[in-house]
Each structure stands twice: as C-alpha cells, then as structure tokens.
Amino acid sequence: MLLGRERELEALRRLLAAARAGSSAVLAVVGEAGIGKSSLLDWTAEHAEGMRLLRARGVESEAHIPFAGLLELLRPALDGLSALPPPQAAALESALALRPAQAHDRFAVGAATLSLLASHAEAGPLAVLVDDAQWLDGSTADALRFALRRLVADPVAAILVVREGERSLVDGTDVPVLRLEGLDEAAAVELLRRRAPEVGGELAARLHRQAGGNPLALLELARAQPPEVPLDTPVAAVSSVASTYLRRARRLPERTRLALLVAATCDGDDLALVARAAAGLEVGVHDLAPAEADGLVELRGGRIEFRHPLIRSAVYGDALPELRRAAHRALAGALPDREADRRAWHLALAAAGPDEAASSALAQAGGRARERSAYEVASHAYGQAARLATDRRRRARLAVVAADAAWLGGLAERARSLLDEAAGDAEDDVLLAEIEHLRGHIAIRQGPLDEACGLLAGAAELAARHRPDSAVVMLAEAAEGAFFAGNAAAMQTYAERASRLAAATTGGRAAFFAGLAAGMSRVLSGDGERGAALIRRAHESIGHSGELDRDPRLLAWTAFGLLWLREADAGEALLEQALAAARARSSVGALPHLLTHIGIGQMAGDRYLEAQVTLDEAVRLARETGQLVILAEAVARLAWLDARCGRAQAARERAAEALALARDLGARVFEVWALTALGELELVEGDVQAALERFEEGQSALDRSAIGDPDLSPAPEQVELELRLGRDARAAALAARFAEAAAAKRQPWALARAARCRALLATDDAFEPRFAEALALHRRTPDRFELARTQLAYGARLRRAGQRLRAREELRAAHEAFEDLGARPWAALARAELAATGETARRREPGTADDLTPQELQIALLLADGRTTREAAAALFLSPKTIEYHLRNAYRKLGVHSRQELAAALARAR
C-alpha cells in the first residue's frame, strides 16, 4: 500500500540516514485508520539495514497493564541494564517487574529508559518503532516521552505511529509530525488495478472519491457487494471500512460471531487463551473457521490476528452488552494466576453494577501498579475499583488513593475529579483531611494560591485531633503558600498553629516543619533575629537525622528555609546534599522547587554563572512537570538575573511571563520579583522615571499584602532614584521607614542596605562613617552584588567630594566585582565613574562563556568540576553522547581542547 507515498518514504529515509550518521531523530506519523501508517512502519523496519531494531505496538485492551508497551519495546535491550546507574536500573527493573516492586518518582523510569536506549545504541544505530502509540499504557507513554525528547546525539531514529484524533504521548511536545493524507486518484487507481483488477477505471475513480484516498477503505469497498452507500457519497473512511467489516461479520454463523467476540475481547493474541475462554461460552476455536475464510482473522503459530484493529473494535462494539460482559467473565476465568492484573480488568468489565470481588481485584491491581511507579495505570485501577465498591467508606478511600496516584502521575485534573468523587462518600475527619490536603497540595503547585492555603488550613483542622504530625506538615505547606501569595498575616497564623500542635508531638518531622514555618513567619513579620534562630535549629535537627535520604518532601524545604538567612554560613553543604539525593533518585518532580531555591541562593551570593544554569534547569523542569507556581518563581528570578547581567530582551520576556503567571496564580511575591527585575533593568538603562514606577508598583503590591519584610522592599532603589530626581525629602522619608524595618529585623543584609540609604542622604561631613558601616555589614553576607553597589555609590560620593584616590579604590573594587559576576551594565557604570576620576578601567572582553547555551554551560560546569561524562549524564537525565555533543560545542566556542583548559576558561568567566 505504498503507492503514491514517495514524499513520506523520503522522509523516513532521511530519518534513518540521520541515525546512521550519529544523530537522533524522532518523527510522529499521524493519520486515520487504514491510511497506511503501519505499512510505512513495516517498510522502515525492512529498510533499517545495519541498524538494531526495537519494536512495540500499543494495544487498546492493554492500556491498563503497567508498562506493557515498555516491556515489549525494551525486551531485546534488557541485557544492558547493568550499564545503567544503579538507581535508574532499580527503577526500570521494578517498573518491568524484573525485581520486587518499589515505587519511584514517575520520571525515574523515563530517565532509565533514556539511559537504556542510549546504551543499546552504543553498539550501532538503533531504530525504535512504535505502532498505535495512542494505545500505549499511560506509564509507558510517560517514560517514552521523557526519553525521546532528550535524545540529541545518539544514533537513534524513533518513529511513533498515531491514529488521527486520538490522545498520545506526542501531544504537547515538539516532535515533528508527518501527516498522512489520502492517495491521489492516480495512485488509488493503480492500487486497485494491482489488488482488485476486477474494478474498472470509472468505478475506481468513484471509489477514490468515496474513500477519500484511504487505501484500506478503497480495497474493502471494492470487495463489498453491493456498495452500502451510493458511490458518489463521500463518507469518513473509518466509518465506511468499519461498516464493511460489520456487514461481513454479521453474515457469519452465530457461533462464529460469539467466538469472534471472545477473540476481540481478549487483550492479546494468545489462541490458547481464546480457546479456554470460548469453551466457557460453549464455543470453540474451530468456530472461527468461517471468519478466517472471510479474511477477518488469521490463525497461525498458536496466535490469532485480526486483519486490522478496526475489525476488533467493530466486532466488540456491535455485540450486545450482556454478551460483552459474558466474554469478559469467560476471559477472567480462563486467565492464569500470574495474569492477576488482566483478570481484574476483565472482572471489572464483566460487572453490570457494584461488584465487591471485581473491586477488590482491581484495588490489588492498582496497588501492584503503584509499586511499579505506573501511577496513571494505578489511578485508573483504583478509580474503577472505587466505582465498583459496595461499601461507601471503602469507595471513598479508594477514590482518594486513585487521586493520589493520579497526582503522582502528573494528572492534576483527574486527581481533582477523583477527589470530588471521594468527598461525596467520605464521612470521617481523617479521610476528609486527606482529601483537602491533596487538593491543597495540588493547588500549591498549580494555583490559585489563596485557595490552596484555605484548603490546607482546613485539612489541618480536620487532622489535628487524630494525626497532629500530619496536621503540622499541612500547616507548614499552607505557610509556604501564604508566603508565595504575599499573605503575611495568614502565614503567621498557620505557623503559630503548627508550633502549638508540634509541641504536643514527639516526631522530628513535625518539629522540623513547625520550626521552619515559625522561623520564616517571624522573618517575614520583621523579627529576623528570632526567626533566623528558629530556622537554624530546624535545619540542624533534620540535617543530622538522616531523614533527607528517606523523605523526598524534605529536599526542597531544606533549601527554602536557608534562603531566609542571607548569611555566608547558611548551610550550602546541606543544599548540595539535598540536590545530590534528588538527582541520584531521579526525583525529577522534586527538582524544580529545589533547584529554584538553590539558584536563588547562588544569585544571593557571588555565583551568577551557576545561578543562571540552575534557574534555567528549574524553569525547564517546572514546565515539563506542570508546576506552574514554581515556574512563576523560577522565571521571575531568572528575569531578575538577566536584568543584572544586561540580557535586556530576555529579562523583559521572562518578566512578562512571570507577571502573567503570578497574577493568574495569586503569587504576589513573584509579581514583586518580576517588577523588581524590570525596575533594575530600567535603572541601569538610565530611565529613572520608568524604573521608579516599576519599584513603586512593587512596593504597592507589598503594602496591599501587609508584608513588612525589608528584604522584599525596593525602598533602597527608590531612595537612589528619588535623589537622582532631586526629591531629597521623599528619599529621606523612604529611607527612614526602611531603616526602621531593617532595625526590627536585625539581619545584616537589610541593615547594610539601610546604611547605604543613610549614607546617600548624609551631608558631606557625615557620609563616610555611614558607608563604612554599610560595607562592614555587607561583608557579613555572601551577596557580592549588593556590596559592589555600595562600593559604587561610595566611590561616586568620594569623587564628588574631591577625594579621587580614595574614590578609585572603591570604584575599582566595584568594577571588579561586577565584572566577575557578569553584571556588565553595572560594570559599565563603575567604569564611567572611574573615568570621571581620571582613571581608565580596562574593560574585559565579553567571555566566550556568554556564547554557550544554558545546557552547554551546565554541562561544562559539571565536567570542569570533575564529573565524568556518565556522571553528568545521570545527573542531568541525558545520554553520555548528548553530554559529549554539548561538550564539543562548548570546547569549540571557548577555544579549548581539554578538561583542564575548560576548567581554566570557566574559572575566568566565573
């Protein structure tokens, strides 16, 4: 059926050639049933000379079997499992039931799939062919989507065949699509001449018009006597072919139709299983002979194959409901014990109403799927088990478990729907608390944040009497959400309630979460000294307990609290420990939150290059995992970093995205960050009025939320801008209010900025002690940028006071710091001030590191710091060849030829 497909065949040839040349290529072939997709896939397999081959086919009835498609696809490559990083090998072996099951992050299986494909391709180019990808079980689809989008430089050609109009793993990706249209009239006439020579030219042309050029429809309509509709009537090819198949099936003997129904109901092509099930309905395999003679099925080698999937679906859909249920019941009885999951689904489909046996079997299947990280499959099994349950309490419990599995599988909308079902049946406070907790947890990641906080607080009240430890965690999450939402009063309320509950418990987790929430709440309200002490105490307790290695939920929280300290000794080692643990376990879902806060910490110090890489990865992973709140946070911070480093266009684009997200989600703190990014950009570009408007807009947002934390205030920038406009009185009023807030907080970062404001406002005989005070305070924090800003302001003031030599010292230090950070617009301001003193600062040439993409830079940094190629690949969920590909690009752009030269070049850029 490849007549008239020259364009499509050429595209497939190029795909295979790219893989043979060492590049990765992925293509989705999309079209309606019968259009020739499978034929193109078979042609590809035949012409993949010199390539290794992995093939799988989605089966509609196996969509609820955990990783059924992935096992079929990867089976020939499983001897390479030993080459994978141990955590990835464990995740994949568990998913494929090759070892005792142990649940992992859903992306861990995708990372392992990528590694195994890359390893298998090391021995030679690889073709990965997947037919009917729209019917892959959801967990297989997730794993393949994760793996295929990360293939870059491995010799792998992947072709995914998808039926038009069906959901599949291709949705929402940038995979190129080859869309198959019907054959033109000449090709259609030639096809009929070869395959149905009895059809004359005029009839062939009319059939072409009716079938729309669909090859299968052409051939089936050609053999249909008489035609079912007038030949000049255009109809959908799928419906015309299906009706033709039905017409043929209905002519068969009754016993044959029943045996054919059993075969259509069977989730596989095992003829022995079909025979056992058919016997339960008092028919046999021999009754299939008329269907085989008619060309609907083929029996060979102990297997039964339908000529086309449309025949299976047409036969099944045409049967009476009671006959379909009988066929499912017969198949459930015929399946062996080792096929418990398949039996469970047949029992469920055999049920005409609530059925406790079927519900119990499906719940057990859901449990096995969850243990293998097949969360989508588990969610469907638990959800159907809930609907079949006869007991209301059990129905509610199963719906909650189904919702939790859906959320772990990245299916937020399904999770919410299941929680609605559960809430309708839940009666006890413990279960209601779980329902509201999960609702709130989802909303914390996807918004709206005000709703999330209310849900979590309500859940905590329900849980407080029975499970106070859990209630503390819920309140801590609510406090986090309240901070994101900019609701300082609510944050304090949640933290105080968590502390009261934790005091009545003995658990270390409760004390950690309560202590951290209380510390952050106190910092936000202005009691910085007490808040910092609480944060330190909480982190010391959890850092020494070993729980970081056991509880992924603690990973991001270890970073979250430390950022509030803004101190040089704030526990960077603990952050790196958390990151390493998350990467080792392939906990991709935990990484966006963790990376964002690590990136913020790097930006708050002197590691702008690393911060760019870290925040970029956070943005990419937040998009991929659908964590919109974290995406808003990471994009806002990256926009701020772009503004400082002079990437104006990127800063404006990211700030606009962050503002849109933050306002939609109710994340007012991230809105302030995005406005601050725009304000700093306008400031260094010299548009004083525009910068002031941005900062005022940000301050208004803080005032509306009653946030008094001086660390979030743009007042120091406003003071500077008001002075430039000659409005000294307004500047003094802003500085006084800020100084009061900083004094109440008693943390060096805010106090240093307040001292700078006082220095800017001081008279000529009083400014030097103020600047000296500010510089001393700055040196108690890791923030080199703020130190350099104060040095720049001090140097400028000394120059205007006629103290050129002393001005040069401060301005040189500022210039060097800005250059080291990569804050080039600020470095330019420092050079201009130096020039005004009569000294010309040597402008550094832009580092070639600026030419690297974020991923090239990330890989270069890892390898320069001593990671091997395989270690970097495992950490970043890429293949070793992709790492090498990006490394070669980095070498070329940096003009280096070894790891040692790479490290030296990056050291200069840092």
Task: Give structural notes.
The protein is mainly α and 910 residues long. Among the domains are: 6-179, 3-Layer(aba) Sandwich (Rossmann fold); 185-248, no CATH class; 251-334, Arc Repressor Mutant, subunit A (Orthogonal Bundle), CATH 1.10.10; 428-545, Serine Threonine Protein Phosphatase 5, Tetratricopeptide repeat, CATH 1.25.40; 849-909, Arc Repressor Mutant, subunit A, CATH 1.10.10.10. 67% of the residues lie in helices and 4% in strands. The longest helix is centred in the middle third of the chain and has 18 residues, at 429-446. The radius of gyration is 33 Å and the shape is globular. The two termini are 60 Å apart.
Q: Which word captures the global form?
A: globular
Class derived from helix and strand content: mainly alpha
Output the CATH topology of the domain at 6-179: Rossmann fold
Please estimate the helix content.
Answer: 55-70%
CATH class of the domain at 6-179: Alpha Beta
| Model regions low in confidence, pLDDT < 50 over at least 5 residues | none
Features:
Rossmann fold; Arc Repressor Mutant, subunit A; mainly alpha; five-stranded parallel β-sheet; 45 helices; 910 residues; two-stranded antiparallel ribbon
Q: How is this fold's topology laid out?
A:
Layout: H1 6-20, E1 25-31, H2 37-46, E2 52-57, H3 68-74, H4 86-95, H5 106-120, E3 126-131, H6 138-148, E4 156-163, E5 177-179, H7 185-195, H8 201-211, H9 215-223, H10 237-250, H11 254-265, H12 271-280, H13 289-293, E6 297-300, E7 303-306, H14 309-318, H15 321-334, H16 340-350, H17 356-371, H18 375-388, H19 392-408, H20 412-425, H21 429-446, H22 449-463, H23 468-485, H24 488-503, H25 508-525, H26 528-543, H27 553-562, H28 572-584, H29 591-603, H30 608-625, H31 628-644, H32 648-665, H33 668-685, H34 688-704, H35 715-724, H36 728-745, H37 748-761, H38 767-778, H39 784-800, H40 804-821, H41 824-836, H42 854-864, H43 869-876, H44 880-894, H45 899-909
Parallel strand pairs: 1-4, 1-5, 2-3, 3-4
Antiparallel strand pairs: 6-7
